[in-house]
Design a protein that fits this description.
Pfam families: GST_C_2, GST_N_2. The chain is α+β, with helices and mostly antiparallel strands and 233 residues long. It has helices at 18-29, 48-53, 72-82, 91-106, 109-114, 130-150, 162-177, 183-193, 196-207, 213-222; strands spanning 6-12, 33-39, 61-64, 67-70, 121-125, 223-228. The longest helix has 21 residues, at 130-150.
């Protein structure tokens, strides 16, 4: 097995694309060698250049040794076959991390719909929603279980792994909409926000001048924006 390989990630805007954050953060934090092809949401997603890089019409996509791997969970599993550290070494922690990642990948629809990903904004919801509250309680339960069961400071133990990358977009959502969890979960959230790769993603989102009308409207349907950290369009 080679120690490092050359990869290309196909991603959407850092400000809008929660799915893109997952593999980028995982690969960045673990020191993998990769390039990025960025595509803006909206008309650029209809171009031939985009569909040549992302045949399924979605991001993220990983190009690796002539292969095309799409979907963030599939990318994580592919990388786990090539590199150590993607999942925890301990089999119990690894099984839990995979289960928690799969739940995040498949569920939490209210969190996604009512807290649209908008890294460089700070906003307040128009009103409270019981469905969102229920999912925040489930999120807190998962984080509490991982931190207490495996000892922290990350969800599945002392080392950052794919499960942390899968919950990283939630951390930005909580920050954007000012949503609070208990002290242990807040400390975990702050720990992720302090990671150099997370700070770099936030910086890229703030530097983005692209505005996608559909995403902008989606945010305004559920919240009032009180701070926009992005550069002017």
């Amino acid at each position: 097995m080679q120690a490092s390989k050359r990869y290309t990630l196909v991603l959407g805007n850092p400000h809008y694309s929660s799915w893109s954050l997952r593999p980028w953060l995982l690969m960045s934090h673990l020191g993998m060698d990769f390039d990025v092809r960025w595509f803006n949401f909206g008309p650029p997603f209809s171009t031939l250049a985009f569909h040549e890089m992302a045949p399924a019409g979605q991001v993220p996509v990983l190009h690796a040794n002539g292969q095309i791997i799409w979907d963030s969970l599939a990318i994580a599993e592919y990388l786990a076959e090539q590199h150590p550290g993607v999942w925890p070494i301990d089999p119990v922690a690894r099984a839990w991390a995979r289960s928690a990642s799969a739940e995040m990948h498949a569920n939490f629809s209210s969190l996604r719909n009512l807290c649209p990903f908008a890294v460089a904004l700070r906003a307040h919801h128009h009103q409270q929603d019981m469905r969102l509250q229920g999912e925040l309680e489930r999120l807190q339960t998962i984080w509490q279980e991982g931190l207490s069961r495996f000892g922290g400071p990350f969800l599945a133990g002392e080392r950052f792994s794919a499960v942390d990358a899968f919950y990283a977009p939630v951390v930005f959502r909580l920050q954007t909409y000012g949503l609070k969890l208990d002290e242990a979960c807040q400390n975990y959230m702050n720990r992720l926000l302090e990671l150099p790769a997370m700070q770099r993603w936030h910086q890229m989102a703030c530097q983005d001048t692209w505005r996608d009308p559909d995403h902008e409207a989606e945010i305004l349907r559920v919240a009032d924006i009180h701070l926009d950290l992005r550069q002017p369009a």
